[in-house]
Design a protein that fits this description.
about 500 residues, alpha+beta, Immunoglobulin-like, 2 domains, 5-stranded antiparallel beta sheet, about 20% strand, elongated, binds iron/sulfur cluster
Length: about 500
């Protein structure tokens, strides 16, 4: 496990912190220092924007995608249909009793996060997390309206003039609009998007829709606009857990102090020509671009979300100085040590470094769960049957001398279109069925129809002549077959049942 510095718990007297006076304790609460991240350009910034636009496009366009499921069925590609207790994802339809698929997806996502973290550290936090993506969007708006870091600091310190009020109003107005649209898009996943939009803006949507938008919108506005890095540092448990998945081969954002130290500004270098300064000119650009406001030169920290913007910043400085890039770079602890010891000239990290016992175990578990889920999904039943035996009375003796038991057979057609089914008795010598609502003489099998996505409860009366009663409890089964258009058996379900009778006459 890689040791991570928790800068948040530093107290007076810790290394690098001011010494406490005798008997003095460090503050238990440190007021938030506002961070003004500076705009930066570079490879990782471009990668972050590309991914952010893709994720936002998926989220905002998602509920408007259509998928034809046939007449009477919802045509929204991704839909959580709470009223009918169904989840639709393109061609996949999940019923409440199949919720284990959702649990499986969560397990896959969790293990996927383990794999990514063990390979490339907190890449999820830096590139894909909702908090990161929306905070980037809110910061972009802030820069467009108020200017970059220095302009924002100046505006913060300026008195309240008409210009400042207009800028602040515009910024918060756009933030609120984005927050509203984010929350509004969320509710579109729970109903037909065009209908929900119409109902929402004409005041006909249920009150829960307005409450959801208000609460989610407020959370988005607060988290991405105001709390930003506080969410990553204090609220999210992931930084505390990730240490268990990171080892000395994991790629992390690293400052190569063996190359950069002793650091010195241009002035320092002029003043002390006798000192052999390292490559770091102490310009602070890596700190100014950091969205969590930390100094990567202090070492690995819990607050680092591995966004790599400090790499872009430092590379641009090195380029101007005509020095090799990579003073801050993605590197593993092992590569860092090899570079520092001169065993390696530059970070040499290939796909082989990703294949380690830890990642092999994670990938194997992930693959097994994914394969199991896919197999189950491809072979899952679209027919469910439930049989309940009437308990009171257990049996009835008819005037003909026959014994009759009653059952409720519930057949659930989990396909979208109506289907023909056949119910038949297996075993129970001499037994015959009669089904309430099907006007046919007693027989050992019947066919009936069940509408798409519906259940049909059949009242089934089974009679057995007295002379064929051999025991008080006779086991048999209902065989229910789903028939295709050609009348062939497409699916079959067998449910065991018991026929109760008075003791046989001897
Ligand atoms: S230290 Fe670098 S990688 Fe870490 S959060 Fe700050 S800018 Fe991103
Ligand atoms: S950007 Fe590079 S040169 Fe500037 S302070 Fe950071 S590490 Fe040093």
């Amino acid at each position: 496990m890689v040791e991570v510095v928790d800068t948040l718990k530093r107290q007076p007297g810790d290394a690098g912190e001011p010494q406490p006076q005798s008997g003095e304790r460090g503050p238990l609460y440190e007021a938030r220092r506002k961070i003004y991240p500076m705009r930066v350009q570079g490879t990782y910034r471009r990668l972050k924007w590309s991914l952010a636009w893709i994720f936002m496009a998926i989220y905002f366009i998602g509920p408007w995608l259509r998928w034809d499921r046939g007449p009477g069925a919802p045509d929204q590609a991704i839909l959580v249909d709470l009223a009918n207790r169904r989840f639709y994802f393109f061609f996949i339809e999940i019923w409440p009793q199949e919720f284990y698929y959702v649990a499986g997806l969560l397990i896959l996502a969790g293990i996927g996060l383990f794999i990514a973290t063990s390979m490339v550290g907190r890449a999820w936090c830096g590139y894909a997390c909702w908090q990161t993506v929306w905070t980037d969007l809110f910061m972009m708006v802030e820069r467009k309206v108020e200017g970059d870091r220095n302009a924002q600091i100046r505006l913060d310190n300026a008195p309240w003039t008409a210009g400042k009020i207009i800028k602040r109003g515009l910024k918060h107005g756009i933030w609120l609009l984005i927050a509203f649209w984010t929350a509004f898009t969320f509710i579109l996943y729970f109903g037909n998007a065009p209908d929900v939009t119409y109902w929402f803006f004409t005041g006909q949507a249920p009150s829960v829709a307005y409450w959801t938008v208000a609460i989610m919108g407020a959370i988005t506005y607060m988290f991405a606009g105001h709390m930003r890095e506080q969410v990553c540092i204090y609220m999210c448990p992931w930084p505390r857990i990730q240490g268990a998945m990171v080892d000395e081969d994991t790629l992390i954002v690293t400052y190569h102090d063996w190359r950069g130290e002793p650091r010195g500004s241009k002035r320092d270098r002029k003043k002390h020509p006798e000192i052999a300064y390292g490559d770091c000119i102490d310009c602070g650009k890596c700190v100014h671009v950091c969205p969590t406001g930390i100094d990567i030169r202090d070492g690995q920290q819990l607050a680092c979300i591995t966004c790599a913007l400090c790499i872009d910043a430092c590379n641009s400085v090195m380029e101007k100085l005509g020095k090799p890039q990579g003073l801050i770079s993605y590197s593993s602890v092992k590569a860092y040590n090899d570079l520092a010891a001169g065993k390696m000239k530059q970070v040499d990290f290939g796909w082989r470094n990703f294949i380690r016992p830890r990642t092999i175990v994670y990938i194997t578990i992930w693959s097994l769960v994914a394969a199991g889920m896919l197999f189950h999904l491809a072979t899952r039943d679209r027919l469910q049957v439930n049989v309940i035996h009437d308990r009171n009375p257990m049996f009835v003796r008819l005037s003909t001398g026959e014994i009759r038991n009653a059952y409720t057979v519930r057949v659930l057609n989990m396909q979208l279109e109506p289907r023909q089914f056949r119910i038949a008795l297996e075993g129970l010598e001499g037994g015959r069925m009669r089904i309430l609502g099907i006007d046919k003489p007693p027989a050992r099998e019947f066919t009936f129809e069940v509408k798409g996505n519906k259940a049909r409860a059949l009242r089934v009366f089974v009679t057995v002549p007295q002379q064929q009663i051999t025991q008080q409890r006779m086991e048999f089964a209902f065989r229910i077959e789903a028939l295709d258009d050609a009348g062939k058996v497409a699916e079959m379900s067998r449910r065991k049942a018991v026929f109760e009778a008075p003791p046989p006459k001897r």
